Amino acid sequence: MADGAGLCLGAAWGLDFPARPGERSFVALGGELLAAAPAGDGPLPRPLDYLVVAHEAYDAAPAGLAAGYLADACPGEPRAFSVADQGIGAPFSGLKLLDRIHRGAGLGDAALFVLDPAAGAALALGGTGGTGGWRIETVAEERAGAAADCLPALLERGGAYVLGDGMREQAGALEAAGATVWTATAGHGCAGVWRVLDGALAGAGEASAVRLVIADWDGGLGRLHVAVFVAG
To answer: Which domains does the chain have, with CATH numbers?
Structure first.
């Protein structure tokens, strides 16, 4: 049953794909990302209810549907779909959809796969438990004509930050305000902030941060995308 609380983040991991983007399909990249999951019991030990694949770039070497392939490869029989045509906001939209499903009807376990030809990331999500107790507080977007316009919205949220490559110049102001900041690697597209999330989660826990703000700015569409996780 739904309890109104946001989804918990069970695990996050990422992978840099070798050069030669466009030579492998999203099916192949998704398979490599799944195979790179942390060892042990694995981040997806229980059957999934839902699985979302988010991407900004188009599949340059189509070899089937990545969402369908991953649904077959993951435990359970999850409902699977893709989110695209939203620029770097695609992963945020996928995360928001899963969180809304959970808040409205309850959700056992789910996964979000973010694919870019240069890098990928995956998030294991669930109704309970999580890495350091991190839970989704909100996923939102707002207009921002320039990267500098994003700063007030970020400062008012407070906490530690993971910033997209297009927001690199805002890191100094946030650090001056006492925040810890991680920045995505250039060239990783919509996967950038999610690729470094695993390291940011560990660092935020060591810094005793109570809020972790994931933010990416889409200059072409003039949109700031934000996902906020809270500890506890």
So the answer is: 8-132 (3.40.47.10), 136-230 (3.40.47.10)
